[in-house]
Structure formats: C-alpha cells, structure tokens
Amino acid sequence: DIQMTQSPSSLSASVGDRVTITCRASQFINTYLNWYQVKPGKAPKLLIYASSVSLRGVPSRFSGSGSGTDFTLTISTLQPEDFATYYCHQTYNTLWTFGQGTKVEVK
Amino acid sequence: EVQLVESGGGLVKPGGSLRLSCVASGFTFTSHNMNWVRQAPGRGLEWVASISTTSDYIYYTESVKGRFTISRDNAKNSLFLQMHTLRVEDTAIYYCARGFVVLPAVDYWGQGTLVSVSS
Fold first, then answer.
1. Are the beta carbons of B117 and B16 closer than 8 angstroms?
2. Distance (Å, rounded) from C-alpha B65 to C-alpha A95?
3. B73 forms bridges with which residues in the sheet?
4. Please, which pLDDT band fits residue B27 given cuts at 50, 70 and 90?
5. Which of A106, B24, B89, B99 suits a disulfide with B33, CB 3.0-4.6 Å?
6. Cβ–Cβ below 8 Å for A99 and B44
7. Of A37, A71, A48, whose CA–CA distance to B105 is shortest?
8. Residues whose CB is less than 8 angstroms from the CB of residue B40 and which lie 6 or more positions away in sequence, other chains included
9. Would you call A86 an interface residue with chain B, using a CB distance cutoff of 8 Å?
C-alpha cells in the first residue's frame, strides 16, 4: 500500500494566519492527490483534487500544489470556519489511502 | 440536492455480521462509482471498498478482504456493505461516499452510520 504521511499532526493558528500542511507519499503518485476538510459531526468535504484543482465553490484562500511524492495544502488567510481537520488522499492506484490528518486549532 | 443516507449500523459482538445500506438521491446513481470509507473513534479516515458503476470492478482494503462484500443495486439507487466476522477494530463510523466523475476522489459523503463491535 502507498503510505501517506501528513505534517504536522496538529497546529495552532490565529484568524488571518497563513497555514501550510504537507503530505508525503511513500512512492510516486503523480498528481493523484486530494484534500478534504472534516469538522466534528459533519461529513467530510472535498476541497481540492488532482493536487491543485479546487472544487467549485471552495474559497480561493485554499490552494494545493505538488506532484510526485510531495504535496502542500495552503490556507492563505485563515478564517474562523477553517478550524477543522484536513486529510490528504491518494488515488494513484485502486487501493486508496488517506493521510493521518492535520488538526488546525485555535491558538 | 445530492443525498446519501446510510443505515444498518449498530452494536454487534465480535464474530458477528451486519449489512449496511446507503440510499442515494439527487443524482444519476449509475454514473458514479461508489465507496465506503470509515473513521474509527479518535482516528483518521480509512478507505474500505469501492465498486464501479456496473459492479465490474470491486476493490477492498486488505484488512477487510474475505470478510466484507460491497455491492450495489442500480435499480434501487442503493449501495451495500455486507460485513462478516466483525472484529473490535472494525468499530467506526461508516460513510457512503460518491465517486467523483472527473478523477478518482470522493465528492459527496453521507452522514455515516456507527458500527460498534464489542463483547
């Protein structure tokens, strides 16, 4: 299986901060990398697919980049509604795997 | 509006069985691959199984192979997960998840159904 390692596991930030989350794959996955936002008690929400393509309706402050094995999710200006847990997700092969998650908490 | 409504979760003893169901509405069910994804208490997301639009292609995560069976009934817009020989470590919220048509991903999720495996 392809292992996905996110860092950090958690971070504390303030509204207005720039936040960067990284995700590393254990092998080459091209750009088959998606990002999800999960809030307690709510269904996960797809933010970005194919490493850098934002789903329609996702605020422009969310952006993704990377290819091969190293990927980044950036929130340019953190908003109150962005405190959540973020997961990367590889779909390079038919055996999908998720990162362990990064919890963005209030500083 | 896309809706995915899961049911069938509950408390079961180790070694027991459960069948999860997911009824889809608000979109053309036959156009989408479907998936089950779970989240154990305090843990991250884990992909469980995927099924293609006509059930020709089915995939499972290693830990459930031989115990779980994913299936779908396109006439009833329904997705299923038959779970046998349940283990304590299968305890999780199980989400029905719609495959994104553009690229492999999940673009809609249900609210989930809780499966608890305990003696």
1. yes
2. 12
3. B78
4. very high
5. B99
6. yes
7. A48
8. B46, B89, B91, B92
9. no
